[in-house]
Structure formats: structure tokens, C-alpha cells
């Protein structure tokens, strides 16, 4: 397993993150939610301006780097009762190498450093590969949510969480 470096995202990194997000999302999510919703969500949540605004609002973004190459990214924030993992993505050519697991270990350490008892995330109900990966890491499905995100689109997700003291 290769060792990754996780670096706090700077404003200068945001265009590279947006470019990586577009590549990952178009490949991974188009079969699940369709290209129209993917493009809408990229603009609404993963554009440079959207990410800059999220960071201003207290969301932490990190680059996942392997041998000086940006291979993924993650973002999270504290909602008071949990560390909410908003995004964790690894490029398709680097999946299956333990990078996602190392990134998740970093997230869990961040939750512990914030004295939060759990990590929580949402995942599309039809994103079966990611759901299974989260389960292998110890996450459990605890709820289902449907969120209207505008323009007739919804996020139809499971809420998953892992308690850190179990």
C-alpha cells in the first residue's frame, strides 16, 4: 500500500480540485443520477466559487496526494454532534489501493481531535460500491433522506455513521 499525503487545500488548489471533481463525478455518477444532475451538482457544489464559499463557511477541504500527484480530495465540517464527511473522492485509476481507507483514517483522526463521537456521511442509495466500502470500514446505515437540491433534482441518500469509541 502506498503512503499518501493529505494536505490542507489552499485557494490556489481549488481549480485543480474542481477539475478532478468534474472527472470523477462525470465518470462515477452519470450512470447513477444522469448527466444533467451531475453537471448541476458540479456547478452548485464543486465549482471553484462554491468550494471557496464552503471554506469561508467553515468546511475543511484537503488534497489527497500520491507522489506529488493530486489523486483525490475530501471535505468535512463539525455539525456539533458529529464530523460530517461531505466529500471523499479518489480518481478511478487510484481506487482499490488503500488510498480511500488512508483518507478515511485521517478523517477519523480529525473527528477525534475535535472531540466528536462519530463520523457521519450521506451516500446515494444506488452507489453500491461506495456503500459496501463504507460498511467494510465500519459504517452503518442509520437513516434515509431525500433532499431537494433545486431544478427538480433530489439527493436520495442513506445516512451512514461510525462511532469512534466502539
Describe the structure.
The protein is an alpha+beta fold and 166 residues long. It is built from 5 helices and 7 strands, in the order E-H-H-H-E-E-E-H-E-H-E-E. It is globular. It has helices at residues 14-33, 35-45, 48-56, 99-113, 128-136; strands at residues 5-8, 60-66, 69-78, 83-90, 118-124, 140-150, 153-163. It has one domain (5-163): Aminopeptidase, CATH 3.40.630. The mean pLDDT is 96. Strands 1-2-3-4-5-7-6 form a 7-stranded mixed beta sheet, with helices on both faces. This is GCN5-related N-acetyltransferase. It comes from Kangiella koreensis (strain DSM 16069 / JCM 12317 / KCTC 12182 / SW-125). GO terms for molecular function: acyltransferase activity, transferring groups other than amino-acyl groups. Keywords: Transferase. Residues 4-165 form the N-acetyltransferase domain.
Task: Furnish the topology, listing elements before pairings.
Elements lengths: L4 E4 L5 H20 L1 H11 L2 H9 L3 E7 L2 E10 L4 E8 L8 H15 L4 E7 L3 H9 L3 E11 L2 E11 L3
Parallel strand pairs: 4-5
Antiparallel strand pairs: 1-2, 2-3, 3-4, 5-7, 6-7
Helix pairs in contact: 1-2
The CATH architecture assignment turns out to be: 3-Layer(aba) Sandwich
The ordered string of helix (H) and strand (E) elements is EHHHEEEHEHEE
Strand order of the largest sheet: 1-2-3-4-5-7-6
CATH top level assignment: Alpha Beta
CATH superfamily: Gcn5-related N-acetyltransferase (GNAT)
How many strands in all?
A: 7
Helix content: 25-40%
Number of helices: 5
Query: What fraction of the residues are assigned to beta strands by DSSP?
Result: 25-35%
Task: Output the CATH topology.
Answer: Aminopeptidase
Average pLDDT, rounded to a whole number, is: 96
Structural class: alpha+beta
Shape: globular
Distance between the termini: 26 Å
The tally of domains stands at 1
> Main sheet, how many strands, which sense, barrel?
7 strands, mixed
Rounded to the nearest angstrom, the radius of gyration is 15 Å
Low-confidence stretches: none
Amino acid at each position: 500500500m502506498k503512503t499518501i499525503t493529505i494536505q490542507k487545500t489552499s485557494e490556489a488548489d481549488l481549480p485543480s480540485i474542481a477539475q478532478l471533481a468534474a472527472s470523477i463525478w462525470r465518470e462515477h455518477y452519470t450512470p447513477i443520477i444522469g448527466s444533467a444532475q451531475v453537471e448541476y451538482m458540479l456547478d452548485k457544489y464543486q465549482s471553484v466559487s462554491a468550494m471557496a464559499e464552503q471554506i469561508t463557511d467553515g468546511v475543511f477541504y484537503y488534497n489527497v496526494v500520491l507522489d506529488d500527484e493530486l489523486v483525490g480530495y475530501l471535505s468535512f465540517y463539525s455539525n456539533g454532534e458529529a464530523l460530517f464527511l461531505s466529500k471523499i473522492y479518489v480518481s478511478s485509476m487510484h481506487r482499490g489501493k488503500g488510498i480511500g481507507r488512508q483518507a478515511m483514517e485521517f478523517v477519523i483522526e480529525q473527528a477525534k481531535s475535535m472531540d466528536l463521537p462519530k463520523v457521519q456521511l450521506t451516500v446515494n442509495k444506488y452507489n453500491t460500491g461506495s456503500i459496501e466500502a463504507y460498511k467494510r470500514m465500519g459504517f452503518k446505515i442509520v437513516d434515509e433522506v431525500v433532499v431537494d437540491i433545486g431544478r427538480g433534482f433530489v439527493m436520495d441518500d442513506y445516512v451512514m455513521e461510525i462511532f469512534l469509541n466502539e
